[in-house]
Amino acid sequence: ARDLRGRGWDAWPLVGETQLELELDIANRSDLTGLSPAPNRVESDTQEGQVVDSTGLSPRPNPVESEFGAFAAVCDDIAETTGKLKKRERLAGYLKSLDPDQLRLVAAWFNGRPFPRSSERRATQVGSAMIRQALLDLTGLTLPQYKQVSSSQADSSRTAFLVLQGKTNPVGHSLAEVATVFERLADEYGQGGKIRLLRESLAQFSPAEGSRLIGILTGDLRIGLKEGLLEEAIADAFERPVAALREAHMLTGDLGLTADLARRDALDEAAVTWFTPLKVMLASPEETAEDIVARLAGNDQDAIWCEDKFDGIRAQLHRQGDRVEIYSRDLRAITGEFEELVEPARDLGHDVILDGEIIAYEAGKRLTFFDLQKRLGRKGRQLAQGDLFFGEAVPVRFIAFDLLAIDGEGLLDTELRKRREKLETLRVNDAITRCDVVRVSGPEAVDEAFNEARRRDNEGLIAKDPASRYQPGRRGKQWLKLKKAMPTLDVVVVKAQQGHGKRSHVLSDYTFAVRDTESGELRVVGKAYSGLTDVEIEELTERFMELTIEKRGRVRSVEPVIILEIAFDSINPSKRHDSGLAMRFPRIVAIRRDKTIADIDTLAYARKLSEIK
Questions:
Q1: If DSSP codes are grouped into helix, strand and coil, which group holds residue 294?
Q2: Separation CA 61–CA 514 (nearest Å)
Q3: Which end of the chain is more exposed for a tag (fewer CB within 10 A), N or C?
Q4: What is the mean pLDDT of each run of 10 residues along the chain (613 residues)?
Q5: Are 513 and 522 in contact (CB under 8 A)?
Q6: Which of 524-559 are b and which e, b meaning 16 or more Cβ less than 10 Å from the residue's Cβ?
Q7: DSSP letter at 58?
Q8: DSSP E strand stretches across 282-435
């Protein structure tokens, strides 16, 4: 139909959605590889001080010079620069020019966070639907017009850059003023107020600046800047060793604070800090007990410590005096979701930072992750009053398996066996307890420990080197996990399809992918539609409608945000998917609300499960 319209015919499709199209064919533009403030601009007969780009969009003022304008320009430079060393050099020069307050802000923004981790505010609670509505209100576009642009870009910030052309009256903003915008958005109650504030703010930014503002709000600037490269640039800016800076960042959990320590040549002041969550140490998967013994046993007959792998969510508990906070593995505060653990934590008798697992537990029996799901996102009165669909709140228990700090002393460099000795001194209770440790020596003993863990309705086994130090954020070979029975993969949904029959009104069939670490791309490994409740499917349908990138018939390509845990009988070679693999009888175990795309499993691990070399 579009081809016919291009030939002068008034043609529209007989089936499917009829979307009004912009005069500009956005999808075919060749200047969308970056977000330069003025791509392909040409001079025209406009008023002095104005330019028009070659697409024919409305005239707009030249970008106003400002601190935030300079930040946006650096983002553009980094996005357009090829080569890691050049990116580091450009970024280091910019970071070195900032004062301490500015440095803390931009370190967070480059990392896709509106607030430094040290801030009392964690998020603005501005989602994609609010951003879309603010842009619609400001630009006057219809929803079909907006969707045509957004579907061609698959990126909120690039979409904002395009639709804001000629629609704003830019004024200069300092970095502190932009920080105030984020604070006001976070403090504003209700969607209507947030949309109004965002619309009014965007009206005062150039399209390039507005796109960067949206990128920070959505958590990804999309400029090819990984956290590791940002750490290296900060080290270069202040001539500090990269290893020392990374060690300090690991301890502080705040890149802005770490950058300030680097600026002051005070990286050695970084230490484990209460209420600054640490990244968790991770275990590497192994297929067999023999593999685990080969990795860990050596000549020591009691070299392997085995713990049950629980079916819950990883959590970190900080207790200092009467203050207690609980953090998820993505460093988000979740204390309000598990308030019944606060008082028991105060009874531990020591100031501690505990690494452990929150599990659903009732009447002396461990429940499943599905039961625990009912607690995620529910706070305060919601817990006390129960839930219309899920009923009364499911009781939980915190099982501690490591001690990271006690009474002002950090223990990250202390051997596990000594950390465990100190953990044994805590006055635990029914709500906060310790995991059991079994010391084994050979494959048969590892297998038996695994079978015992399964008999206790746990997922499998974690095997640890008792001499291991705690390495936040790292997946080394000192901790290994065995999940050989009923294997599962953590995957991200990339497509959602309309169901059939009684599910024809919802998106119930999900295509999912794992991460190819060699290319960085997502590779599809299967499709599943069973395992979720009707309530969960309704919830996901609403989310996928918001996350839709492109719609073709009954299938929607969606932003890779929703993480699922998938069980299967086997993984086999297949040409059906671009991973070269396909799952046999995949089924959804759970929606992993506690995980992000950074936590999904890899293609290499999937191949290992399929015994493909």
A1: helix
A2: 44
A3: C
A4: 60 47 38 37 34 35 72 93 91 95 94 84 86 94 88 81 93 95 93 94 95 92 88 96 91 88 93 87 89 78 83 93 93 90 94 95 67 65 45 81 95 95 94 94 90 83 94 87 78 91 83 93 93 91 93 91 90 88 89 92 88 48
A5: yes
A6: bbbbbbebbeeebbeebbebbeebbbebeeeebbbb
A7: P
A8: 282-286, 304-309, 313-320, 323-328, 352-362, 365-366, 396-406, 409-410, 432-434
Q: What's the pLDDT score for residue 52?
A: 34
Which two structure tokens, joined as six digits, stand for 378? 């529910």
Do residues 101 and 260 make contact, with C-beta atoms less than 8 angstroms apart?
A: no
Could you give the CA distance from residue 396 to residue 365 in angstroms, rounded to a whole number?
Answer: 11
Phi-psi group of 176: left, alpha or beta (phi > 0 → left; psi -120 to 50 → alpha; rest → beta): alpha
Closest of 255, 169, 166, 209 to residue 76, by C-alpha: 209
Residue type, 27: A
Using alpha carbons, select from 499, 570, 555, 551 the residue that is nearest to residue 529.
Answer: 499
Catalytic residues, which ones? Answer: 309
Backbone dihedral region of 226: left (phi > 0), alpha (psi from -120 to 50 degrees) or beta?
A: beta
- Residues 6+ away with beta carbon under 8 Å from 322: 346
Q: By the 8 A CB rule, do 304 and 292 touch?
A: yes
Structure confidence at residue 512 (pLDDT):
97
357 forms beta bridges with 314, 399
- Per DSSP, the three-state class of 320 is strand
Q: How many residues does the chain have?
A: 613
Asked whether the beta carbons of 443 and 306 are under 8 A apart, the reply is no
Query: Dihedral of CA 172/48/80/32: which sign?
Result: positive
**Up-side HSE of residue 377: CA atoms within 13 Å toward CB?**
8
Instruction: Tell me, yes or no, if the pTM score tops 0.85.
Output: no
Task: Specify the residue for token string 């357009």.
Answer: 80
Residue 328 forms beta bridges with which residues? 315
Q: What is the pLDDT of residue 400?
A: 97
Question: Tokens 């959602």 — which residue?
Answer: 496
Q: Any idea what DSSP says for residue 589?
A: E
